[in-house]
Design goal:
Blueprint lengths: L12 E3 L4 E4 L5 E3 L6 H10 L2 H24 L3 H16 L23 H17 L10 H10 L8 H25 L4 E9 L5 E11 L2 E11 L6 H14 L6 E6 L3 H10 L4 E3 L1 H13 L2 H19 L1 H13 L15 H13 L1 H11 L8 H24 L10 H17 L5 H18 L6 H8 L12 H18 L11 E2 L5 E2 L8 H10 L9 H14 L9 H8 L4 H8 L9 H13 L9 H13 L1
Subcellular location: Nucleus
InterPro entries: HATC_C_dom, RNaseH-like_sf, Znf_BED, ZnF_BED_domain_contain, Znf_C2H2_sf
Organism: Pogonophryne albipinna
């Protein structure tokens, strides 16, 4: 062929005539009519897929071989002949041909602007990062962040903090809120928790969280976190809770509301709103333990440990000496912990840490000889016993404060378990009188606060419907039987019997429905039909159906304690349809108001010295997105 062959595909073919070329691998003839190389390229891809790959891998090798052949030619004639043949073979072989380099276009030197869709996606990711990681809006003005963003994508244009605050954040807030409203609207029932908090700017906030079951999974979301400008009276708190419930369309779905023990919120939920009120389990435990450790002898011991902890944490010399002693004794370097007056578990952690590092701590205090009262051997023993007594209370608090797992059904079991532990210590009393007094106080206070917990209806029904516990969680049999009766009643109410359809409805033009008359029952069948009608599927008495379901449910074996009860119900939903409906209104109940308290822990990280001028509306949006993204 006389036409100049520019395409690199000709490295693998030899022209036969103007219309055909022969493949150098399989010797097949390929049509190249009109100079088109498409057929040849398609042939390579289907018949010899590794040929093009070999070109790329051997380009450098072919160049090197050509250079070597040229050098050999100038050495001697004998070798030159061989080298020339090698160079010729290299030039003609398809694997060693050199690909023509492409010229760089002008577009290669220009940064193309980011596409609007991609800009929007990155903007939204930026707003989510600010809300999730507690970043200030001014981060987009920080020199280091701008340099980092430019290094990632020079074409991306950072929005201003005003754009983020006034447009992008509200838009994302409304979008996420609308999605959650749609999701919660499908929930059969919800459990609310609420709490109040005052920020470092002396602004009072109230949070409301929602817990519900969808697709047999327990979900938790923050509904709102807003400023309460009025005084915290029962009427004002009830008004705010009612407003939130109406905004989210859940006023008729509230199975229970969990709060702390404050009289104003208890009255708002119980007396004004008429909702089922559940006292926070963790708050009740906090009151019980704090009261028990406030006895004179125990409190004096705690003050001694606290003074030592404050000294070691405040003094750099003492901290260094403590680390040195721990190294000498081959122990892990641990710091002293300090308690917080409003959290009893912080006192427990402080005393527990003192026990863990007792030997290096005693040695450090002896070497430094500060003007502090030292603990006697008897006081160290009392400290250890107090920690042993408080350990189960701490474990129960952690167990009951989870948001991801069902907790309301555990309340009765946890209360009874703590009562048994304290009763066991009463039967095996300590040799130290302060410890005896503490144990006796715990026993009395637990009975006062949790003695009637089996009578709390929503908790009792949640416990009964948990396939891990059922009636076995109840100490008093009568309470269990009353709970069964209530569940049967609720299941009966939830049942929707469907009568058998003996009439065929046909819709004709104009929307007229014609119901042909049913076939009359002969008189000799009438008595039988009356007696067996309620026994046929679909027309069973709702009460009878509910009783049969609860009987079958209670007869099933218990599942392991660590198993997921909602997964069990997912498998059995079709077997116990009416009981399952009641279950969704009970196992969504949480045992504590800790979810609302966690919201304020995050809010405290948002309202900082660097962000103390945030408006309440911006705090509301940031807290909401942080909790729900």
């Amino acid at each position: 062929m006389s036409t100049r062959k520019r395409s690199d595909i000709w490295m693998h073919f030899v022209g036969v005539n103007q219309a055909q070329a022969r493949c150098q691998y399989c010797k097949n003839l390929i049509s190249v009519h009109g100079g088109s190389t498409s057929n040849m390229r398609r042939h390579l891809k289907t018949k010899h897929p590794t040929a093009l790959l070999a070109d790329t891998q051997q380009t450098t090798t072919g160049t090197a071989a050509t250079t070597s052949a040229t050098a050999s030619t100038s050495t001697d004639s004998g070798v030159a002949s061989t080298s020339t043949q090698l160079a010729t073979a290299t030039t003609t072989a398809p694997q060693a041909a050199r690909k023509r380099p492409k010229q760089t276009t002008m577009g290669g030197f220009i940064n193309r602007p980011i596409q609007p869709l991609q800009q929007s996606k990155v903007d939204q990711a930026l707003v989510k990062m600010i809300a999730t990681d507690f970043q200030p809006f001014t981060i987009v003005e920080d020199r280091g962040f701008r340099a980092y963003t430019a290094a990632l994508d020079p074409s991306y244009v950072l929005p201003s903090r005003g754009t983020i605050s006034k447009r992008m954040l509200p838009n994302l807030f409304e979008k996420v809120r609308a999605e959650l409203q749609e999701q919660i609207r499908t929930a059969p029932a919800v459990c609310l928790t609420t709490d109040c908090w005052t920020s470092n700017t002396t602004t009072s906030y109230m949070s409301v969280t929602c817990h519900y079951i969808t697709d047999f999974k327990l979900r938790s979301n923050l509904l709102d976190c807003f400023v309460v400008a009025e005084s915290h009276t029962s009427q004002n708190l009830a008004q705010e809770l009612s407003r939130v419930a109406k905004e989210w369309g859940i006023q008729d779905k509230i199975a229970a509301c969990v709060t702390d023990n404050a009289s104003n919120i208890v009255k708002a939920v119980n007396d004004i709103l008429k909702w089922n009120h559940v006292r926070c389990f963790a708050h009740l435990l906090n009151l019980t333990v704090r009261s028990s450790v406030h006895q004179t002898e125990i409190q004096a011991l705690i003050l001694k440990v606290k003074s030592i902890a404050e000294y070691v944490r405040r003094s750099t010399v003492a901290s260094a000496k403590l680390r040195e002693m721990q190294l000498q004794m081959g122990q892990v370097q641990l710091r002293m912990k300090q308690d917080v007056a409003t959290r009893w578990n912080s006192t427990y952690f402080m005393m527990q840490r003192a026990i863990e590092i007792k030997e290096p701590l005693v040695s450090t205090m002896a070497l430094l000889n500060p003007l502090l009262p030292a603990l006697t051997p008897e006081e160290w023993d009392i400290t250890k016993e107090v920690c042993d007594i408080l350990k189960p209370f701490e474990e129960v608090t952690v167990e009951m404060s989870s948001e991801r797992f069902v907790t309301g059904s555990k309340a009765i079991l946890m209360a009874r378990g703590l009562q048994r532990i304290v009763a066991h210590r009463q039967r095996n009393p300590s040799t130290h009188e302060p410890v005896k007094g503490m144990v006796n106080f715990l026993a009395a206070d637990l009975e006062k606060r949790f003695g009637q917990i089996e009578r709390v209806r929503v908790l009792a029904e949640a416990t009964l419907l948990d396939p891990r516990f059922k009636k076995h969680a109840f100490v008093i049999e009568r309470n269990a039987e009353e709970t069964v009766s209530r569940v049967v009643g609720a299941a009966t109410h939830a049942a929707t019997p469907t009568l058998p359809s003996t009439e065929e409805e046909e819709e004709e033009e104009g929307g007229t429905t014609v119901n042909p008359p049913s076939e009359p029952v002969p008189q000799f069948w009438a008595d039988f039909e009356e007696r067996v009608t309620t026994l046929r599927p679909g027309v069973q008495n709702p009460s009878t159906g509910a009783m049969l379901e609860i009987k079958g449910f209670l007869a099933e074996p218990l599942i392991p304690r660590k198993a997921d009860p909602l997964e069990w119900w997912r498998v059995r939903a079709l077997v116990y349809q009416n009981i399952c409906t009641v279950m969704k209104t009970r196992l969504c109940i949480v045992a504590t108001s800790v979810p609302s308290e966690r919201v304020f822990s995050k809010t405290g990280q948002i309202i900082t010295d660097r962000r103390n001028r945030l408006s309440p509306s911006k705090v509301r949006e940031l807290v909401f997105l942080n909790a729900n993204l």
